[in-house]
What does this fold into?
Amino acid sequence: MSTNNTMNSPTHSLVLYSNSEAETENIGFAIGNAMNCGTLIGLNGTLGAGKTRLTQGIGKGLGIKHGQIVSPTFTICVPHEGRIPFLHLDAYRIQTAEEVDELGLDEMLENGVSLIVEWFDLIRPLLPTVDLEIQIDAPTKDSRNFAFSSKTKNGKQILNALKSKNLNQS
Ligand SMILES: Nc1ncnc2c1ncn2[C@@H]1O[C@H](COP(=O)(O)OP(=O)(O)O)[C@@H](O)[C@H]1O
Ligand SMILES: [Mg+2]
It folds into this structure.
């Protein structure tokens, strides 16, 4: 019988709903609380979807002081030190594969640094297997849908933690 990674690692998924920035922060907080070292989280969604707001919640869950996580407009990536070290990366302005290579992200992940990537789809092929992917959609001005999918044990563990919390599920 043939086996492959897809068969061995089914995608686990979850959708959470938010009706305010505070609810989005709560979702992020729960993710940050559940995160392990060396976790790669990819965020997708258009401009203004809430990638940075969610990351601020994640930072809070990781014990980062309020106000430290901002939209990384001029810098591609910003390191933070909370309960675990993590890097907030915005791929929007990345032009070449070399720019990503120079960051040495594979090595950082192996050394236990966790990584949160906004505009993940733009650099997906340049990164190792993502633990948790989050697609953010904005059906109305104040509502947001967070569609989670995980393919690794690490990502699944975060999803299970989210399922056990009192967050808006479908
Ligand atoms: N439920 C919500 N969750 C998150 N942001 C929301 C929500 N409702 C409205 N917003 C607004 O959406 C914008 C999200 O911005 P931001 O997180 O910087 O987006 P991105 O990083 O995806 O470009 C903010 O202006 C915020 O006030
Ligand atoms: Mg952003």
Observations:
- The longest strand covers residues 12-18.
